[in-house]
Amino acid sequence: MGSILEQLINGLRSGSIYALIALGYTMVYGIAKMINFAHGDIIMVGAYALYVLVALLNVPAIAAVVLTIIICGVLGIVIEKVAYKPLRKAPALSVLITAIGMSFFLQSVALLIFKPNPIAFKSIINVNSVRIGGITISGISLVTFIITFICMIGLTYFINKTKTGSAMKALSEDKAAAELMGINVNRTISITFAIGSALAAVAGILFVCQYQSIQPTLGALPGIKAFVAAVLGGIGSIPGAMIGGLALGLIESISKAYISSQLSDAIVFGVLVVVLLVKPSGLLGKNRIEKV
Amino acid sequence: MKKSLKKVLSLGLVSVMTASLFAGCGKKDSGSDAFIIGGLGPLSGKAASYGVSVKQGANIAVEKINAEGGVKVGDKTIQLKLNFVDDEASPDVAVSAYNTVMDNGAQAILGAVTSDAHMAITDLTNDDGILTITPSASIAGATAYPNIFRLCFTDPVQGITMAKYAIETLGHKKIAVIYNNSDPYSTGVKDAFNAEVAKLGGEIVASEAFEKDAVDFSTQLTKIKGSGAEIIFVPTYYTEASYIATQAAELSVGLPFIGSDGWDGILAQVVDAKVLEGSVFLSPFVATDENPDVQSFVEAYQKEYKAVPDQFAADGYDVVYLIKAALEKAGTTDSKDLVAAMTQIKVDGLTGSVSFDEDGEPNKGAKFVKIENGKYVAITVE
């Protein structure tokens, strides 16, 4: 019994990180109608930024976290301005390929600067494990849950209650109409990329504190998993990304624990296939007829 | 008329330049009396620690031999030269790295360091008939060709040895295993281990897999925690093993670990060495060994590289001495004679006294290492 609960906690923890990353995918898709494949690598940039600030420059932990988030947010804006904005009128495929290219670019730059060898990094989150009954919850898991929860609440509030949030929603509904209503499209897109990348930075920070090791490809696998989570939840839908991320983490953990650790990825993707067959737009995605 | 003159002139110039280019090439290696050892191993990437250690250990041996006057081959004394190329532990890169060292005039191959990369070049070395000694590719089939020898134990032998250690020496019956199911080294050790455990009357209560690049092992560890296991066997490379040990401590799994020889170098990968306290793994070499040869090697290595040598460094060192012994026995630098000489030599190396059988496998005893107080300590096991 205790073991089932612990497995659920494990699943929720990796699911939380997937959800944070998936939010970035889904927000960018909702507004710019593109899959930003470089998104996973923002996690990696966040991890290295934290490492440089904390381990090399001895910046205090809190300041380093804030700076890391700012660096990634700014990087998100720059990537959009440099790589995606000039292609806004281009076919979707061109933008997709540019995004993949951007992903390789970021990885290669990290390879050049930091070399391919993994770097051991001491976690900056030092919270003791908690024992409830027979269950142990590690400190980093607790912190991950709390931070993910705060991010989700904050984002939901931002989207629904602020003017910029409304602008984002309007833009994702109908870009041309939003523009006619006086919404600044460029500014809104920039803010979307900034928020998505900031969330990826948070995921990156939690990731390195969890696994305590950094390498240039660390963003690739969580990036792909989070993309699957975003599709599972319905890409373009913010609650969908949250649910998709958590669901993916849980399915992964439960299938590893109770079915087979060798087949867990096959099961995860099997579930995705089944969901998409039943509901092609994902769990919470809107069935919208594409205008031609 | 003028035009064609220009053409002839430029053609002449081009041919002179090309010729000089080739002339430069040919001169590079001939003339010197060095025997070139081509080294292959990862100098970058996840397994970089292995390749760097092998290269540095081999370098120490080459410098020592050369400083002592070189190798007596027949009636000539020749110097050794190491040409070590990065294979990134990848099969594709290993092939081009092999071609590079061959282009550089390699006369014997030290490598490859990792199993996957080694398997990619076995065909090529056989086609060239060149003497190939791998310090550490432990996969079954690594010495399938007559020209290939290995210094380390095979994967199956490692699995069997560790199973005996867990059951007969430590007296555990219920054992959990975590292995990488996308890595032939890991699955090879695991298969032999599981079979031997069953033979000795033990029980594998959990056999958990993970895939390449996995960083999260909490699910597998939680499952093992509830499985009644008394010990966890982790036949993987040090990167994964360090994640596993760290996460096991976070989850308060509280079980001892045993590992395969891929664990060597693990202490540098963990933030807190306490998570590894008491772990035991197979390693043919420990720097704290009192053997004078080992101590003088450790001293030279520390002086040169400011680091304590691990088993891979010792393997690299020993392979150079094996090549030296083969050269002296054969009396020529001819690949065919060197290969034939290998089964007739016996070398007292840093990793133990070793001789070879016809299959290219080593005859030597197992050595264990325990992590105590954040340090590697050699232990003797009956």
TrEMBL record, chain A:
Membrane topology of this protein: Multi-pass membrane protein
Any GO molecular function: L-leucine transmembrane transporter activity
Gene Ontology BP, a term: D-alanine transmembrane transport
Localization annotation: Cell membrane
GO cellular component: plasma membrane
Keywords: Amino-acid transport, Cell inner membrane, Cell membrane, Membrane, Transmembrane, Transmembrane helix, Transport
Transmembrane segments annotated in the record for this chain: 15-36, 48-79, 91-114, 135-159, 189-214, 226-251, 257-278
Protein name, UniProt field: Amino acid/amide ABC transporter membrane protein 1, HAAT family
Species for this entry: Anaerocolumna aminovalerica
UniProtKB/TrEMBL annotation, chain B:
Pfam families membership: Peripla_BP_6
Domain Leucine-binding protein: residue ranges: 37-374
SUPFAM superfamilies reported in the protein's UniProt record: Periplasmic binding protein-like I
GO biological-process terms attached to the record: amino acid transport
InterPro entries: BCAA_transport, Leu-bd, Leu_Ile_Val-bd, Peripla_BP_I
Alphabetically ordered keywords of this record: Amino-acid transport, Signal, Transport
Segment forming the signal sequence: 1-23
Coiled coil (residue ranges): none
The keyword Zinc-finger appears for this protein: no
PANTHER family cross-referenced by the UniProt entry: LEUCINE-SPECIFIC-BINDING PROTEIN, PERIPLASMIC BINDING PROTEIN OF ABC TRANSPORTER FOR NATURAL AMINO ACIDS
Family: Belongs to the leucine-binding protein family.
Protein name: Amino acid/amide ABC transporter substrate-binding protein, HAAT family
Lineage, broadest ranks: Bacteria, Bacillati, Bacillota, Clostridia, Lachnospirales
